[in-house]
UniProtKB/TrEMBL annotation:
Divalent metal cations. Prefers magnesium or manganese. InterPro entries: Aminoacid_DH-like_N_sf (IPR046346), Malic_enzyme_CS (IPR015884), Malic_N_dom (IPR012301), Malic_N_dom_sf (IPR037062), Malic_NAD-bd (IPR012302), Malic_OxRdtase (IPR001891), NAD(P)-bd_dom_sf (IPR036291). The active site is at Y105 (proton donor), K174 (proton acceptor). Residues 269-530 form the Malic enzyme NAD-binding domain. Its cofactor is Mg(2+); Mn(2+). It comes from the Eukaryota. Belongs to the malic enzymes family. Gene3D superfamilies: Malic enzyme, N-terminal domain (3.40.50.10380), NAD(P)-binding Rossmann-like Domain (3.40.50.720). GO terms for molecular function: malate dehydrogenase (decarboxylating) (NAD+) activity; metal ion binding; NAD binding. This is Malic enzyme.
């Protein structure tokens, strides 16, 4: 097993010198270049005399970060650091993980993306714009030639964090978490942005925005995306292709189109579904019930809501041996038309959620739309899930009504950022007399139970599981990501829940423990891929734990030797 100490002894042969190496974030060490390296790479007169350790650099950078007085300014500082010194960036994040993930990811990254065109400083990733599609292969190869790429994160930015259409930014942030939390080498990742226009008039009329046209849809859109996917399959057949923040009309459809032909993963559908399932599995571990005993009301039937529903349904089929039809009956979905029921008609029910449609015979007295309170009163759900981005939708009346019908109501207001959450956990805790088992999509402070004890609000953050799923697939060279691989990941994460030891503790591990969680998830996924016979490696399932640890990238400088024929 390759230890951290052994990785620190690595020797890299680098051909960049002078200004070129200082401007390359992969190789730049800043003031950590040794005297020998400074002489070899022509840096003696370019740096202050003192040689700093990585510890000293991290402390200085953290002090500088603390001088920024708002989250968006801290986000900008971290982005600038990533563009200068990759090792320092990731090591600073690693040391202050819980504090800084909300800065580089949800919720602050949402504000950065909303203002991306005005915050732009430097090119990052691959920009594929619709009118330039004739040069797509040339542009793609320009980025990947001579590189080993394990991970590609791509987005068309239609559904970023509830913001709506916005050009670029999320792919790079998502990719960074794969490296930070799971250990995928950042030099082996590629962030891709599809600029296919926007339907947001304010953005399109912004003089600094990218391609100021209406969003491309239909056949032209499909052909554009397919052209890219076929390039990935042709040139990077063993890579993981991560779809991020595609709109409701495209997310599930694209996943279904390609998931049997390549290792494809959609975090909004599968990642959200997986981490929510793990959270629920921990909760039913507290209540000593089965998954199939639950009654689920899902408020918000977009990509996230559908993904959560499908993931829980599939787990019921696997774990409790229910048929698909029987499992579907455990769900009541609501969208902008209210409860998804037959009389809405096919024009108001998206194809992906039709199998969860409730019969009108269940609602003989309903006149028109059936709202959330009506559903809660009739169904008496054991689990209430929110992914609607409708702030305050879980009203006091709704929460109290739910609490009447169950000893420990499981309430998961998952919308983010935090200002869009369906209910503030402290309110839900008060309205249920401290009975609720809760998790949220963004970080919230602990709340007091009636007994005076703090109740820790679990953060149902995809980052607890998706990097490990991806790394497990990459390390095992899986030809695809199967439902059983994802369920193996959720089982492993759920087994780490603090609530299983103390029912008043959090339903999921703390975000500070995300690297440990994702290591376990990656091992579980690799083991499952080998067991299913879809892995492309020649090692055995029993070796997965050692192989994952051995291949994890860590933010360590190593020793540089100048070589005109070396890397980069």
């Amino acid at each position: 097993m390759a230890s951290t100490a052994a990785k620190a002894q690595q020797v890299f042969r680098v051909r960049l010198r002078g200004e070129a190496i200082l401007n390359n974030p992969r190789w730049n060490k800043g003031t950590a270049f040794t005297m020998e390296e400074r002489k070899a790479f022509g840096l003696t007169g370019r740096l202050p005399f003192r040689v700093n350790t990585l510890d000293e650099q991290c402390q200085r950078a953290y002090d500088q970060l603390q001088m920024r007085d708002t989250p968006i300014r801290k986000n900008s500082f971290m982005q600038s650091m990533k563009e200068q010194n990759r090792v320092l960036y990731f090591e600073l994040l690693r040391r202050h993980l819980k504090e800084l993930i909300p800065i580089i990811y949800t919720p602050t990254e949402g504000d950065a993306i909303a203002n991306y065109s005005h915050l732009y400083r430097r090119s990052e990733g691959l920009y594929l714009t619709f009118p330039n599609q004739d040069s797509m292969e040339e542009d793609f190869l320009e980025q990947v030639k001579g590189r080993n790429v394990d991970l590609i994160v791509c987005s068309d930015a239609e559904a970023i964090l509830g913001i709506g259409d916005q050009g670029v930014g999320i792919s790079a942030a998502k990719s960074a978490l794969y490296s930070l939390i799971a250990g995928i080498d950042p030099s082996r990742t590629l962030a891709v942005i599809f600029d296919v226009g926007t339907d947001n008039d304010d953005i399109r009329n912004d003089d600094l925005y990218g391609w100021p046209e209406k969003r491309v849809r239909g056949k032209e859109y499909d052909e554009f995306i397919d052209k890219f996917v076929q390039l990935v399959r042709k040139h990077l057949p063993h890579s993981l292709l991560h779809f991020e923040d595609f709109g409701t009309a495209n997310a599930q459809r694209l996943l279904d189109t390609y998931r049997d032909h390549h290792a494809v993963f959609n975090d909004d559908i599968q990642g959200t579904g997986a981490v929510t399932l793990a959270c629920i599995m921990a909760a039913i571990g507290v209540t000593k019930t089965k998954l199939s005993d639950q009654r689920f009301v899902v408020y918000g039937a977009g990509s996230a809501g559908h993904g959560i529903t499908a993931q829980i349904r599939d787990a019921m089929m696997t774990m409790d041996n229910l048929s698909r039809e029987e499992a579907n009956k455990r769900f009541w979905l609501l969208d902008r038309f209210g409860l998804v029921k037959e009389s809405l008609g096919p024009e108001k029910i998206r194809e992906g959620i039709r199998e969860f449609t409730r019969p009108d015979s269940e609602w003989p007295d309903a006149k028109g739309e059936v709202g959330l309170l009506d559903v809660v009163k009739k169904v008496k759900p054991t689990v209430l899930i929110g992914c609607s981005t409708k702030a305050g939708a879980f009203t006091e009346e709704v929460v109290k009504e739910m609490a009447k019908g169950v000893d420990r109501p499981i309430i998961l207001p998952l919308s983010n950022p935090s200002r869009l959450v369906e209910v503030d956990p402290k309110d839900a805790n008060q309205w249920t007399g401290g009975k609720a088992l809760m998790a949220t999509g963004s970080p919230f402070p602990a709340t007091k139970n009636p007994n005076g004890k703090d109740y820790i609000i679990a953060e149902c953050n995809n980052a607890l599981i998706y990097p490990g799923i991806g790394f497990g697939a990459v390390i095992s060279k899986a030809r695809k990501i199967t439902d059983s691989m994802i369920i193996a990941a959720t089982r492993r994460l759920a087994s780490l829940a603090p609530a299983l030891k103390d029912p008043d503790d959090a339903l999921l591990p703390d975000m500070a423990d995300a690297p440990k969680c994702n290591y376990e998830v990656a091992v579980a996924v690799a083991e499952q891929a080998i067991e299913e016979g879809i892995a492309g490696v020649d090692w055995k399932k029993e070796e997965a734990r050692e192989k994952v640890r051995e291949k994890q990238w860590e933010p360590i400088y190593g020793t540089y030797v100048y070589d005109p024929e070396g890397d980069e």
